[in-house]
Write a structure and sequence with these properties.
single chain, alpha/beta, Nitrilase/N-carbamoyl-D-aminoacid amidohydrolase, Rossmann fold, 3 domains, 15-stranded mixed β-sheet
Amino acid sequence: MRLATLATCNLNQWSLDFDGNLDRILQSIQIAKEQDATYRLGPELEVTGYSCEDAFLEEDTFLHAWEVMAEILSSDATEGILCDIGMPISHKNVSYNCRVLVLNQQILMIRPKIFLANDGNYRETRWFSAWSQERSIEPFSLPETIRDLNQQHTAPIGIAAIATRDTTVASETCEELFTPKSPHIGFGLDGIEIITNGSGSHHQLRKLNERIDLIRGATAKGGGVYLYANQQGCDGSRLYFDGCALIAINGEIVAQGSQFSLDDVEVITATVDLQEVCSFRRSISSRSAQATQVDNIQRISIDFDLTTSQFVAPTKPITVFYHQPEEEIAYGPACWLWDYLRRSGSSGYFVPISGGADSSSTIALVGSMCQLVVESISRGNQQTLADIRKVLADETYMPSSAHKLANRILHTCYMASENSSKDTKDRAQAISEQIGNFHLNANIDGIVNAFLSLFVRLTGKQPQFKVNGGSLSENLALQNIQARTRMVLAYLLAQLLPWVRGYKGGLLVLGSANVDESLRGYVTKYDCSSADINPIGGISKRDLRQFLRWAANHLGYPALIDVVNAPPTAELEPITENYNQKDEIDMGMTYDELGKFGILRKVHRCGPVRMFEKLVYEWEHLSPAIVAEKVKRFFFYYSVNRHKMTTMTPSYHAELYSPEDNRFDLRQFLYNVRWSWQFRQIDQLVKKLETKN
């Protein structure tokens, strides 16, 4: 047997937090050594944090990265363990996203990324260049900080493998796993036994299975060991990196890290028998035939063993654990909220709660966060305890329950108007009591009437709701003034409630507009959808309803069932015997239809005509004319409200069809809302289909 104990990790790094990032890197190496590992793999760009974005254009970022590397090399951290560390490097005035392999205080090689991530949430080509010479290495002149430290002047940079006395190791980086012609294919055929991947892969609902299938597949056909490391947490952006470090051998997973955790450092290890790799590969004749034709990858030989002479039982395959989508919603945004809270300098959250599904989901997620914090502290996590004491400015604080913690951290207010119902008020009260948050009830009619009185004095006109004979403009204006008043009151309460209660600090305001409402533009600009951050802004209404059902049972908030069963309503118009405002009627489409439109628009890249062509056959229960009307209605309202995306609250990313303008969905905000050419083509298709039938 050739037994090697290998380590990989999840790290909760923070962009440009060089002190904290260094500490977490060193801690992970130390844990790996304590577990007798001879190899340690870290996440992508772990030295700087992944989400530095345009800070990667600053020379300081590269300078500080090398200073951190000098701190690592000056310690004894890398003695007796081969470390694979992610950091940015400038070579010949070109920036590269690199892996730096280090052993015994020496840099063995620098491996730049070949295939950059440049779609969806990623813009790596803005900051880095891809290494184009796939089978070559060249000298890299090390900076003075490294030369003075260990008298090493150069290190090889390029694509090569590390050849120890007993095996070979080669690195991939994140996107290279997802690309069709992954480097690991050639590595494996060239006899490299251990392939590693330091990644910065974000959470997205129902995405983990894809990642794990690719990792399994990386070794299932051609054999080998595959190590995967990932960032875990919010390092400064809308994304939550969901960890789940993995170790696989010959297509079987033998170790899996957590997907959602408040631990800043998590190291997993596995003892693998490299002889199993040899045996597996030799048993596949077609693989052997292809291996004889592959281009050789350069080896950098080192005097070091990864295997041990001691007999240790190899790690057995495990059953991979997957969270259900409802659990992903419960834990992913909750962890994201925790990172944002503890790193923002704020003392808690404020939510304007309506008693509807969206705001109830938002406070339930904060409740979930409180439960995770209390659980983490009960397991002895001293960092979580230190963080919550810092948040609350109380060095002696010890949370006895999530319910009591919520009372300190989460503040809500039900802001009623004359159009609000007793049902929504009661639901807001019941949910707040079950979560434990500090809750207030307010009536905003006086503020709204003050604005309207001023308007009447200025114009001599009295606007009316449509149920009272008012125009569309009047009706919308009367709804919007209520919504915007709530935002102003929300920020006043967020700033002063801690002071009122005798506490220090201020609160972050949480938004509660879901991805479907944002896509349709069914929000008031600068209402309660405008906030500091929004944990549900990338989650569909359908998924939120499923989450609420799950949370009612598993988080201990049974009042959420009443929220799920209530029809969605903005409660901004008067309720009469003959009229009760309903979201889906106002929008002219259901939330399920909105989700379908969003997927076709963003994921399948459909314009109006292509969307109609797809839906006219999928929605067979509707006539072509009705499908056409729905498609045209969607694109009209999507485009007429697109300008709202420029002001939408930064949202937790969870859904592929998110319309967020800032980063994920780069489209214009000024459209010809008539879509004259496109809609004319749809009308012609409808005529053809109707004639055919």
